[in-house]
Write a structure and sequence with these properties.
Strand order of the largest sheet: 4-3-5-6
Bound molecules: adenosine-3'-5'-diphosphate
Shape: globular
CATH architecture: 3-Layer(aba) Sandwich
Number of domains: 1
Largest sheet: 4 strands, parallel
CATH topology: Rossmann fold
CATH class: Alpha Beta
Low-confidence stretches: none
Radius of gyration: 18 Å
Strand content: 5-15%
Order of helices and strands: EEHHEHHHHHEHEHHHEHHHHHH
Helix content: 40-55%
Structural class: alpha/beta
Distance between the termini: 29 Å
Number of helices: 17
Length: 299
C-alpha cells in the first residue's frame, strides 16, 4: 500500500511499525527529539479505536467544559495529530509544528507506537490516555477509512489480509496495544477501552476526570455525555472532520460526498459481525490469538 516502509528500532529489529517513507525522511527524528512538557496531555491509540471521541472528552475535561471554544475551533486545531503531515507529502500543512508550538498545556494526538514517540515522554512523563478497541472493529473501521478517503481501492478481503499480515499503516496493532498494556500501571498512564465507553460513558468520564485531577458535578457530567454521544459527535462540524476530508479529497482529486461517508461512521461494538465474511473473521481470530494478549478483553 502506497510508499509504506517498515521501520524498526536499532536495538530491536523484530519490532517494527509501518509508516510512509515521507515520515521517515522528514519527521521521524524531529519527533523523537521533540521537547516534552510535564503539563502536556497526550491521547495515543492505534487508528480507529475511538481517538476522536476520547480527544473531545479529554479536551473538555481539561478545559473546564468550555463548550464555547469547543464549538468554535476544530478539534484538529485544539488537539493536533502529531505525525499526520508525515503520512502523505501532499498534506497541506505541518501538523508536527502545529502540535509542537501549541501554547501550554498542549493537547496532542498520536498513533505512533512507543518506539517512535518522543524520547522525553518516558522521562518527563506527562499524562497519556491510551484507548484500544476490539481489533476486528478497528480493522473494519480502518478499511472504510482507507476506502472512503481514497487511500485504497481494493477489496475488503485484501485489506483484512494486509491488516493481519501487519502491512497496513501503523501496523502492527497487536504490538501497539501490548506495549502500552505493559506500562498501564505507570501513574501518568490511563488505559481505556472503546467498549467501556460505549457501555458506560459516564463512568469512563469520571475515570478521566480523576486522572486529570478535575471535578465536575453529576449534572455537568450528564451534559458532557450528551455532547459526546454518537449522534452529537457525528453532527458536530468541529469534530466530525468534514473539513479535513474535503481538503484531502481535493488533494487526491476524489469527489467527497458527506452523505456517503462520515468519519464518525457507525460507532458500534461488534459491528464487524455484519461486515466480515467467515474467512475474514477467522483471519482476525488468528491474529488476535497470535498476540498472546494477557489483556482481559471484554469483547
Ligand atoms: P466506526 O468506523 O466503527 O464507526 P478514531 O477517532 O480513532 O479514528 O475512531 C473512529 C471510530 O470511532 C469510528 O468507528 C467512529 O464512528 C467511532 N466513534 C467516534 N465517536 C463516537 C461516539 N461518540 N460513539 C461511538 N463511536 C464513536
Amino acid at each position: 500500500l502506497n510508499d509504506y516502509v517498515k521501520i524498526s528500532p536499532k536495538d530491536d529489529p523484530k519490532k517494527f511499525c509501518v509508516m510512509s517513507q515521507h515520515f521517515v525522511d522528514n519527521y521521524m527524528e524531529k519527533i523523537k527529539k521533540m521537547e516534552i512538557f510535564e503539563d502536556d496531555i497526550w491521547v495515543i491509540t492505534f487508528p480507529k479505536c475511538g481517538t476522536t471521541w476520547t480527544q473531545e472528552m479529554v479536551w473538555m475535561i481539561g478545559n473546564n467544559l468550555d463548550y464555547d471554544t469547543s464549538m468554535k475551533i476544530l478539534l484538529d486545531d485544539k488537539f493536533p495529530f502529531l505525525e499526520c503531515s508525515g503520512i502523505a507529502k501532499e498534506f497541506p500543512f505541518n501538523t508536527f509544528e502545529l502540535a509542537k508550538n501549541k501554547p501550554r498545556p498542549r493537547y496532542i494526538k498520536s498513533h505512533l507506537p512507543i518506539f517512535l514517540l518522543p524520547d522525553q515522554l518516558w522521562t518527563v512523563k506527562p499524562k497519556i490516555i491510551y484507548v484500544t478497541r476490539n481489533p476486528k472493529d478497528a480493522a473494519v473501521s480502518w478499511f472504510y477509512h482507507h476506502r472512503n478517503l481514497g487511500m485504497y481501492e481494493g477489496a475488503k478481503t485484501d485489506f483484512i489480509k494486509a491488516f493481519v499480515k501487519d502491512l497496513t499503516l501503523f501496523s502492527p496493532m497487536n504490538d501497539h496495544v501490548i506495549d502500552f498494556w505493559n506500562i498501564r500501571f505507570q501513574p501518568n498512564i490511563l488505559f481505556l477501552f472503546f467498549e467501556d465507553m460505549k457501555r458506560n460513558l459516564s463512568q469512563e468520564v469520571k475515570k478521566v476526570m480523576k486522572f486529570m485531577e478535575k471535578d465536575y458535578l453529576q449534572d455537568e457530567i450528564d451534559k458532557l455525555c450528551v455532547h459526546l454521544s454518537f449522534d452529537s459527535i457525528q453532527k458536530n462540524k468541529m469534530i466530525n472532520k468534514e473539513e479535513i476530508i474535503e481538503q484531502m479529497s481535493s488533494m487526491t482529486g476524489k469527489e467527497y460526498n458527506p452523505q456517503k461517508f462520515s468519519f464518525i461512521r457507525k460507532g458500534k461494538v461488534g459491528g464487524y459481525k455484519q461486515e466480515l465474511a467467515p474467512e475474514e473473521n477467522e483471519m482476525l481470530d488468528e491474529y488476535i490469538k497470535k498476540a498472546e494478549y494477557d489483556i482481559e478483553y471484554k469483547f
